[in-house]
Amino acid sequence: TVATLPVQDYAELGERAQRILALAVSEAEALDAGAVAAGQELRDAAEAAGRAAGDAARGAAGEVRAAADRAADERVAAAVREAEGLLAAARQDAEEVRSAAASAMAATRDRTASVLAHQEQEHAERLKAAEAELADREAASEARFAGLTERAEALLSEAGRDLAATQEAARHGQEDAEARAAELLAEARVREERVVRETDRILREHEEGREEVQAHMAHVRSSLAALTGRVAAED
User: What ranges in 7-119 are assigned the alpha helix state H?
Assistant: First the structure.
């Protein structure tokens, strides 16, 4: 019933009541307008603060991502440079060992020809000395290769740990940092596999050179045995 009643204008109360009603309505409208304006100001301030916070967060994330990229690049480059230096040193050592072995074998053959012209005992002693010298060179070469291989593996392991740490740090950044860390990890794995393959190849070449030297020594022994037997028969 109340809802069906017309809006009360208090006309029967006189002009003063009408003025009071108009003043109350005007005050209510002013309060509504003030509340709307204050709410709009708060919304504008909140949006500005949100934009500023977003800009600051994006800037900080970009700096973290750039720092992670630079650190990962520097660590990977340093590990690769040192591993390549070790491989170059290993190749040079292998070449020196092969050259020394060839020189020793040539000298042994010359000494053997000279000794056969004199006596069997002298030749046997010199051959024994040459074998001992060659054995020492082989042992030193193997020790050198073992040390280089161990150092290369340590460097690769350190690079792997650095990349793992970089990847973990990148996970706390944005998706771009994660993608970059994954790319760096893949590149490091490829370089690691290349270094391991190169090291295995050098070791195989060294082993082949040692087998060749041993075959030469066996041939020299057989030749000496045959020549010594021939000399004894002639005597």
Answer: 15-116
Q: Please report, for the chain, how many H helices and E strands are present, in that order.
A: 3, 0
Tokens of residue 4, six digits: 């069906």
Parent domain of 78: 69-234
Tokens for 197, please give them: 């393959």
Q: Tell me the percentage of the chain whose pLDDT exceeds 90.
A: 0
Does residue 180 lie in a domain region?
yes
Measured distance CA(141)–CA(187) in Å, rounded: 32
Task: Please state, as a whole number, how many other Cβ atoms lie within 10 Å of the Cβ of residue 64.
Answer: 16
Output the pTM of the full model.
Answer: 0.27
**Is 135 among the domain residues?**
yes
How large is the angle between the packed helices 15-116 and 120-171, nearest 10 degrees?
180
For residue 57, being part of any structural domain is answered with no
Q: Could you give the CA distance from residue 138 to residue 97 in angstroms, rounded to a whole number?
A: 8
pLDDT in tens, 114-128: 666 676 777 677 778
Quick check: 167 and 83 in contact, CB under 8 A? no
Question: Residue 110 corresponds to which tokens in the numbers above?
Answer: 């010359």
> Any idea what the CATH number is for the domain that residue 134 is in?
1.20.1050
Mean pLDDT (the chain) is 78
Q: Which amino acid is at 106?
A: A
Q: State the total domains in the chain.
A: 1
57 vs 173: CA distance, rounded Å: 11
- Domain presence at residue 221: yes
Q: Is the separation of the CB atoms in 137 and 100 below 8 Å?
A: yes
